[in-house]
């Protein structure tokens, strides 16, 4: 029986839409490939409801749906310099950091927006949506003898963008 190949998690980075454009722009470079898949994903989706007092309701009034809040996906990923031809840990962390500041074209069009991202991993469709990076925390945990980062533990928080 053939051995199954492990699917690795990736993060794609896209230009944000400009003007009346719907959806993301073109992809910015190759996806960031994670050598180690996250141990867990946390997805939170909230809704807003309003309850109005009603003297005629025997137990409670019927809530009024006010809308959905964006989904928030959090995960911890490890970036590692395992092969000599891999993109360096520092370069990959730098690419993640670009997701936390306005993309160049959006600034020049007076529509400041960070790049859009999309996390992808196998068949986990509920976690596959366009988002902005709301938070990035990086801990460098291993270095070469000359001080180059060899491993980083990154905590990512992605906030869904409604389309």
TrEMBL record:
Highest taxon, organism lineage: Bacteria
Pfam families: CIS_tube
InterPro entries given in the database record: CIS_tube_prot_N
Domain Contractile injection system tube protein N-terminal: 7-160
Protein's name according to its UniProt entry: Contractile injection system tube protein N-terminal domain-containing protein
Organism of origin: Streptomyces gamaensis
Biological classification of the source: Bacteria, Bacillati, Actinomycetota, Actinomycetes, Kitasatosporales
């Amino acid at each position: 029986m053939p051995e199954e190949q492990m699917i690795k998690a990736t993060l794609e980075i896209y230009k944000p839409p400009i003007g009346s454009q719907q959806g993301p722009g073109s992809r910015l470079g190759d996806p960031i490939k994670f050598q180690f898949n996250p141990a867990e994903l946390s997805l939170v989706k909230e809704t807003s409801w309003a309850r109005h007092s009603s003297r005629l309701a025997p137990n409670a009034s019927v809530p009024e749906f006010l809308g959905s809040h964006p989904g928030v996906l959090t995960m911890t990923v490890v970036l590692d310099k395992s092969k000599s031809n891999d993109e360096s840990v520092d370069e990959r962390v730098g690419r993640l950091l670009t997701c936390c500041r306005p993309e160049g074209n959006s600034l020049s069009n007076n529509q400041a927006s960070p790049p859009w991202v999309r996390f992808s991993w196998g068949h986990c469709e509920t976690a596959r949506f366009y988002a902005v990076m709301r938070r990035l925390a990086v801990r460098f945990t291993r270095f070469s003898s000359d001080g180059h980062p060899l491993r980083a533990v990154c905590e990512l928080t992605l906030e869904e963008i409604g389309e």
